[in-house]
Amino acid sequence: MKRLMAILTAIMPAIAMAAEGEASVAKGLLYLGAGLAIGLAGLGAGVGMGHAVRGTQEGVARNPNAGGRLQTLMFIGLAFIETIALYGLLIAFILLFVV
Predict the structure, then answer these.
(1) Whole-model pTM?
(2) In this predicted structure, what is the pLDDT of residue 70?
(3) Buried b vs exposed e over 35-68: b needs ≥16 C-beta within 10 Å?
């Protein structure tokens, strides 16, 4: 929590300067937001996919006869998780090229 407060304290003057018309600071904050959007989306998707694969492998280890069904459900779940990462990429592109 202390680190987060230190980071926010460091960024606040930049936000204030951006409100006054500093184009370079505003652009830098857009790049920061785009990087955070894709970075956190990728991190979340990676963690989610890891948990999904681990759960499927544990399920197959416990009941090998259900392997095909579990694998199908895992691939459907992985597709949904991947869309979360694509939404993060979309937000990053919007921040970089539209705003």
Answers:
(1) 0.68
(2) 92
(3) eebbeebeeebeebbeebeeebeebbeeeeeeee
